[in-house]
Sequence to fold (296 residues):
Amino acid sequence: MTTGSDFSELFFSATDGLTLHARVYGEGHRDCMPVVCLPGLSRNARDFHELAVSLSRRAEHPRKVVAFDYRGRGLSAYDRNWRNYNVGIETRDVIAGMIASGVEKAHFIGTSRGGLIIHSLGSLRPTAIKSIVLNDIGPVLQGEGMAQIRSYLDRAPKPRDMAEAIAIQRATHGAAFSALSDEDWKRFAAALYRENKGKLVADFDPALLKVVRGIDLDKPLPVIWQLFEALRRFPLLAVRGANSKLLSAATLAEMAHRHPDCQTVTVEGQGHPPLLDTGELPGIIAEFFDRTEGHR
Fold:
């Protein structure tokens, strides 16, 4: 593990030997339950940087935070077999990363794909979960939202520099994310791209697109209420972007109806998924964790 000013870099081995990566914030904090952050399909640990810094540096109840890069994303190695980019294997990778980072039990934050992994963990390793934040994800996914994600990943332009990358993101997502500031857009784009031989490239294995293209949008998407049932034992904070095309308001309401301890937040001026470091969300998330541990 190498250490920086805000976080440490953790490299560990998956069960199949692939080298994976996570960022660890607030390594020395032991008094409060740690937090595990799981990003979206093509995103990486950098999406959680500002939130992780906030949670790890709070004056009261600072926490250790572990943010993962899935295989084929960020600093984790690419898999030669693209079919291994699936929720089942990624769930086992997260379990291996928790062992490597010394985390037995944690609060979980899952954005999009990360929330599906949490659904899987609820059945596979429920003892690892203290509470859950689901960011714009639930048991029912809207086909329109999946089509939007696939179209964007398939046709994403290749920016020449970061200024152009920011402009592309604003042009593509600006209508759904009217609440974002200039600084928000900079962070949004910076977490998506990396430099490779003097050029900016999306920070994930291009083979990941095969997974997205393999989804048959002419058929109804799988519904996983049975996995959601396993999450009913854990306090839940469900976040939805008001402009989301992936998680409907009706599904959010049904989640709250079925879950005995579900707090919901709808983020105005944001789509799929809301940026968790914006507005009041960092405070809402921190207070949710405090409540589940009886600190307030």
